[in-house]
Design a protein that fits this description.
The chain has 92 residues and is mainly α. Helix content is 55%, strand content 0%.
Length: 92
């Protein structure tokens, strides 16, 4: 936790309740090893264009593990192209 406290802004105009801040820092510190492992897996995953599925699965499982509801949605490329020109010239 010392590392996290050292990197907090010195001048906090929006003062956060000290108890809340301590709870957040303790929660992060308590999950430190999990966070490092999950990020290591994510960074090692090939997430280049067309190969994003494994990285998406890692994120999905992480959020599910945290108790978050996850909804997967498909991308409609034709609809995107009709909404903005930038999607007409890319190979998604």
């Amino acid at each position: 936790m010392i590392f996290l406290q050292e990197h907090l802004p010195a001048n906090r105009e929006n003062k956060m309740d000290k108890t809340l801040l301590k709870d957040i820092l303790n929660a992060v510190e308590g999950r430190r090893d999990n966070i490092i492992n999950e990020l290591t897996d994510l960074v090692a995953s090939d997430s280049t264009l067309g190969n994003e599925q494994h990285a998406q699965s890692i994120i999905k499982e992480t959020f599910i593990g945290l108790g978050t509801n996850v909804e997967e949605v498909s991308i409609d490329l034709d609809k995107l192209a009709s909404l903005h020109w930038v999607f007409t010239s890319c190979d998604l």
